[in-house]
Amino acid sequence: MPIRTKALAVLFAALAAMLSLASAARAQTVLLNVSYDPTRELYRDINQAFIADWKAKTGETITLRMSHGGSGAQARSVIDGLDAAVVTLALAPDIDAIANATKKLPADWQTRLPNNSCPYTSTIVFVVRKGNPKTIHDWDDLVKPGIQVVTPNPKTSGGARWNYLAAWGYAQAQSKDDAKARDFIAALFKNVPVLDTGARGATNTFAQRGIGDALIAWENEAFLLLKEFPDKFEIVVPSVTVRAEPPVALVDGNVDAASTRKVAQAYLDFLYSPAAQAIMAKHFYRSFKPEGAAKEDIERFPKVNALGIDAFGGWSAVQATHFADGGVFDQVMKAAHP
Amino acid sequence: MRDATATRRVAAVTGETPVARAVLIAVAVTFLGIVLIFPIIVVFVEAFRNGFAAFLAAFDDPDARAAIRLTLMVAAIAVPLNLVFGLAASWAIAKFDFRGKNILITLIDLPFSVSPVVSGLVYVLLFGAQGLLGPWLKAHGIQIIFALPGIVLATIFVTFPFVARELIPLMQEQGSGEEEAALSLGAGGLRTFLTITLPNVRWGLLYGVLLCNARAMGEFGAVAVVSGHIRGVTTTMPLHVEILYNEYNFVAAFAVASLLALLALVTLAAKSYLEWRYGGAIASAIPRR
Predict the structure, then answer these.
(1) Domains of chain B, earliest start first
(2) Which site among A82, A197, A229, A233 would you substitute to test the B interface, given the most B Cβ atoms closer than 10 Å to its Cβ?
(3) Which of A18, A37, A82 sits opposite B228 (nearest CB)?
């Protein structure tokens, strides 16, 4: 008998704990921002600033929660029911996928906020080990035999798609020929020993496990790496790169169900405020409106020759040609690793 | 005298020279050192790299505390449930004959052979918004995955075999003679269970619960799939370690990892103590898979 009572008591305690957890969450306004991998440090600061700003404006204390991971994987989680109030992902197609699969936000979501819903942009650069021992200066140097290149998997990582497109853009500019560009991409991925699922994983593979001669990375991730490990790495700016646009969006279906539309919208608007734009520049993102940012934060960005997504025919064409099942990336991987 | 012959016979049968034996032992010890002992030492060295204060500071972080709380809560729900399921399943298998018994035994072993990622994924496919039961759950405002219930379910799935697998051989060996005697003397089913069956298997049960608990707290793959990685809400200790590591916060990552390692060491110590103290009673509980 005592055993049965004990088991029942444990069950009840567990149920009570679950219920109290649920009700505690309901007591206060909670917003969940589902984001991509490298924005951890950025949104920690922005969230703090927004919570203070919202409290000053309305007197209400809110809680902001973060979830980080590879952009594609994060979109998948939101599609599977992760309760995101806003999504801040690495590229537009990941948010398109949420809109298509769940109808929780309209198809024209990207027109709802300024600058294609991108409060900041970034670009793709190389990180090499201090002193550049393998003399890597441009994309050509990455396809040489014996060079190891670290970049995440374009199937799961948004950053990796930008990396891939930058390489494609360079190869196209060189040869003006799709078949030759494809050979170039094949040679590049032949030199990739590890395909991590997200940008941060790739950075760790390069920086901490010491694998690879060059890392293809977000500019913000590259600067952060230099800051975390002073005197171990250098940034190399290739002759051609991309203008990466990581967009943000309200997930209407979720905020309406939780009645948090007003504060979630204010959060997204806040991303365009001078305060948030300054924080973005501080964390090495290229602010949309850099006027409010510290001068030295803006000046440290190198000049780049960056192609926009339109140079590749827009995302839907890029997705279909390169990243869909059986697309160029799949063909190249099959050829590189038979 | 008899002992001496026994030793000599053993030596003769295996027949290694002392050198070969020393080499074999050295190989085994080196291997264990490299794959087990050295990494555990590294975890603790890294955790205390910046001193004890920095180590403690890792646990000042509300997210770390939330992760510890969540891990304890998941174990507190999953382990007792698996204790009940495990007892019931092994009781049924060891004491009764019924159709489909072999299928049940196979099913119990399933979590051992299925990748934890798959165990997590089946719950996403079942309870996710696009899943089989997703729309119904949503209509009733019930959140399973990306919340505590999903993490508990995934943990139960992964840890299910531990208790049952300890008990089945033990119960089978003991047979049902004592229970039959108790029943023929007029004891009811529950009384027979509480006074005969349970005491007979108590050490094997405890052993299974310890292993089950260690795995429940340490599970990464299955939980990662259903967690949604909401910081401070659905990140268990293993997930929190990964987050900290990915944020270049190594001391904190290894501090939390050392807590997990400590837990494993305590489990190991408890297991060894049980074996030493109740060696005879437990001997038959050591699984023969």
Answers:
(1) 1-47 (no CATH), 59-283 (1.10.3720.10)
(2) A82
(3) A82
- Residue A318 is predicted with a pLDDT of 94
The 10s digit of each residue's pLDDT in A128-156 is 999 999 999 999 999 999 999 999 999 88
| Residue pairs between chains A and B whose CB atoms are closer than 8 Å | 74
CA of A314 vs chain B CAs: smallest distance (Å) = 28
Contact: A66, B129; criterion CB under 8 Å: no
pLDDT per position in chain B (289 positions), as tens?
A: 444 444 444 455 566 788 889 999 999 999 999 988 898 899 999 999 988 998 999 999 999 999 999 999 999 999 999 999 999 999 888 888 888 888 988 888 888 888 988 989 999 999 998 888 988 998 888 889 999 999 999 999 999 999 999 899 888 888 888 888 888 888 888 888 888 888 888 888 988 999 899 999 999 999 999 999 999 999 999 999 999 988 888 899 999 999 999 988 888 888 888 778 776 655 554 444 3
pLDDT digits (tens, 9 = 90+) for A98-114: 999 999 999 999 999 99
**A154 shares contact with chain B (CB less than 8 Å):** no
Mean pLDDT, residues A301-330: 93
Q: Is A283 on the interface with B (CB under 8 A)?
A: no
Chain B residue numbers touching A3 (CB-CB < 8 A): 194, 198
In chain A the domains, ranked by start, together with CATH numbers, are: 2-118+246-272 (3.40.190.10), 121-244+302-336 (3.40.190.10)
What global pTM score does this model have?
A: 0.84
- Nearest-Cα distance to chain B for A82, in Å, is 6
Q: How far is B24 from chain A (nearest CA, A)?
A: 32
DSSP letter string over chain B?
A: -HHHHHHHHHHHHH---HHHHHHHHHHHHHHHIIIIIHHHHHHHHHHTTTHHHHHHHTTTSHHHHHHHHHHHHHHHHHHHHHHHHHHHHHHHHHH---TTHHHHHHHHHHHHHS-HHHHHHHHHHHHSTTSSSHHHHHHTT---TTSHHHHHHHHHHHHHHHHHHHHHHHHHHH-SHHHHHHHHTT--HHHHIIIIIHHHHHHHHHHHHHHHHHHHHH--HHHHHHHTTBTTTT--HHHHHHHHHHTT-HHHHHHHHHHHHHHHHHHHHHHHHHHHHTHHHHHTTS---
Residue of A nearest to B234 (CA): A67
